[in-house]
Amino acid sequence: MPTRDVISWNAMINACVCNKYHQVALELFWEMRWYERSGIDSTTLLIVVSALSKMNELKQGRIVHGLSLKDGMDSDCFLCNAFIDMYAKCGELSSAECMFEGMEFRDSSSWNSMMSGCVYNGYAEKCLSYFKDMTLSCGGVQADNLSISCTISACSSLGEIHCGQTIHGLAIKLGYGDTTHISVGNTLISLYSQCGEIVDAECVFRGLIHKDDVVSWNSMIHGLAIQSAILKAFSLLYEMQLTPSVHPDSVTFVSVIPLCAEFKLLYEGKSVHGFIIRRGMRLDLSLKNSIMDMYCKCNNHKPAELLFTATPGRDIVTWNTMIAGYAQNDCTIEAQTLFQEFLCSGPPCNALTLLAILSSCDSPKEFQFGKSIHSLQIKLGFLTNFLAINALMSMYINCGDLIASLTLLHSISTVADVVSWNTVIVGCAQNGFFYEALEAFNQMRSRPHIKADSITLVSILSACGDLQLISHGRILHGLALKTPMGSDVRVRNSLITMYSRIGDVDEAKSVFSTSPYRNLCSWNCMISGFAQNKNGRRALELFHNLAYVPNEFTIVSIISASTQIGSLRHGKQIHSYVLRYGFEGNLFILTTFVDFYSKCGRLDVAIQIFKDLREKSIASWNCMLSAYGFHGHGREAIKLFTELCESGARPTKSTFISLLSACSHSGLVEEGCLYYNLMSTVFGVEPTTEHHVCLVDLLGRAGRLAEAYKFIEGIQPQAELNVWGALLSACKYHGYVKMGEQVAEHIFKIDPENAGYYVSLFNIYAADGRWSDAMDVRRMFDNRMLRKTPGYSLIDVCTR
């Protein structure tokens, strides 16, 4: 153009802004300032401020603001509104407020800009305050659909359902309650769904006349997802696909995919991923990150790995998602390798990155790597971040360094919250440090500003159950009943488990019966409690009254109960149920069936189930080894152990207990001794009391009692009572009276209250005809008022 006036420049700058060429628009503006002698007008600045707001350019925004003041445009209401919006979107809410306060005249846009700025910067209370001031102002400004939408969003952020309902009523009064105002309807959907009022949210959504706005559908789907309404969310997504005027976008799937991740819905997650690919939708980074997270949380990290590799412009969330995914799927080496790659080539590390990688340090062998992460955390200045400190404490407990974890806790004890204390208490309880968990709980209780929550009680009750501390457990039960936690279903379930572990099944049943609400876990805890206390009959009776569809834990507990009472009939019925309802691929359940059939005399069925397993866990191998030993098939057990080693599985302590027991029941003395020696030297498994008992039993059955006695004397530290008990049984079997007397004397010094050992010594004397000595043992037995648990046999009356 030969001549350009202000209108020409404004048109060109506005065209650049409309087409998102913000930097070009800014360059044109400065060029205009240089060449255009007639100067600029308020329209020019209005367009430029709009561009700066979208570019988040605070520094240049201040310069433009200065120019407007210099040129005397500070009284232009439209321009002032633009500056308020620009400052708010650049995070300078205080400057926006100063601008707002300095305005001589304010229109509805001024108030709306200020309120939306407050919501944008997370100051929801200020938004409500400005809305109140606007409605009470003398300027005659009336709330419109935008101000109402902003205020409802503020209520949603604060979880203020009653305030939101009041604004809803005001909107109806002002004429914005009808279903044609989509922005108001969308914010109402978000408000009601986030506050748990799904019915009201659906009522607003169904009342919308125009359902061609994708935001409305996304708001409703997101609300259902927040409330974990899985079926409703997917039904609405299906309905959305059938609506011609609206199509799902990336925001829709960012709401649905996390739902698949949370509930491990791999099939549904794959279907959503496939739909996105079929529709040719652009996979933006947020959507890719959600899909990766879904695959990782569904224990299928390979597709996530492929997606990560194929993503060129990875942000910090992408790296964090993949590192956390590896850690969640026990891919420790991959997680740590990727973390090191991230430090070399990725964006700057944040606290969430450290949280992701620390979760991979969950065993003593990862201790050094965990310490290096601690050093990095100090270097990066994250020691004031409570989440990072809690993750460090958890890491040290999992790696076995309890002192380091407690030191960290004490370093922040003055400001530590209940989450920090729970981190230590839960970590101690899960890693076997039960006394330390109780000590940490007592210290927490001494802090008046810290109140135990349901998570605290669940962990402490678990520790009491494992330590058999009935008095402590009852005190905690009383504490729970004095607070609202007493009705918490998780606390109730923990009480059932605690009493069951201690052996007080009647009290456990009382807690179960008086619970105001019982979920499937409650039933599982009670059924398992009966099974653990050898009360299989009551477990079966409770199972018949089960109010829920059984899951794998229910089935395993009831199989265990059937095993106890030797009920092959009940076990077969449960097996049929498993096959009918699709549990036949569950390794956990099938392993339990191997144990059940072998103990009910059907070794052939147990072998067949074991052979048909698609994959075999170490528990499956151990169970089959135990089955062979139970039936006296020692050679087959040894052959199976060889297959186990060749398969790449790593033998455990339980593996060798089963193997040594099999050798003992089959008279394979030399083989048993060989495997006992190989256990520590080749396989790195240190012998425990159970292994010592098996070896003494092996030698005792073979009549090599002197060798067994010598072996016991060589155990360091001193042999446990059960080991001496195994030798005493061997003395009874072979009639070794003198050695039996020596062993019994030693046992009575350690545990004079065990009735079974008195009976064994009595039988040794009786078998040798020494009735006078036998009666002396009987008198000792009676004087201590001991009672031997009577034996019993079970028969299944209904065999057909």
From TrEMBL:
<dbReference type="GO" id="GO:0009451">
    <property type="term" value="P:RNA modification"/>
</dbReference>
<dbReference type="Pfam" id="PF20431">
    <property type="entry name" value="E_motif"/>
</dbReference>
<dbReference type="InterPro" id="IPR046960">
    <property type="entry name" value="PPR_At4g14850-like_plant"/>
</dbReference>
<dbReference type="Pfam" id="PF01535">
    <property type="entry name" value="PPR"/>
</dbReference>
<dbReference type="GO" id="GO:0003723">
    <property type="term" value="F:RNA binding"/>
</dbReference>
<dbReference type="InterPro" id="IPR002885">
    <property type="entry name" value="PPR_rpt"/>
</dbReference>
<dbReference type="InterPro" id="IPR046848">
    <property type="entry name" value="E_motif"/>
</dbReference>
<feature type="repeat" description="PPR">
    <location>
        <begin position="315"/>
        <end position="349"/>
    </location>
</feature>
<feature type="repeat" description="PPR">
    <location>
        <begin position="417"/>
        <end position="447"/>
    </location>
</feature>
<dbReference type="InterPro" id="IPR011990">
    <property type="entry name" value="TPR-like_helical_dom_sf"/>
</dbReference>
<protein>
    <submittedName>
        <fullName>Pentatricopeptide repeat-containing protein</fullName>
    </submittedName>
</protein>
<feature type="repeat" description="PPR">
    <location>
        <begin position="617"/>
        <end position="651"/>
    </location>
</feature>
<dbReference type="Pfam" id="PF13041">
    <property type="entry name" value="PPR_2"/>
</dbReference>
<keyword id="KW-0677">Repeat</keyword>
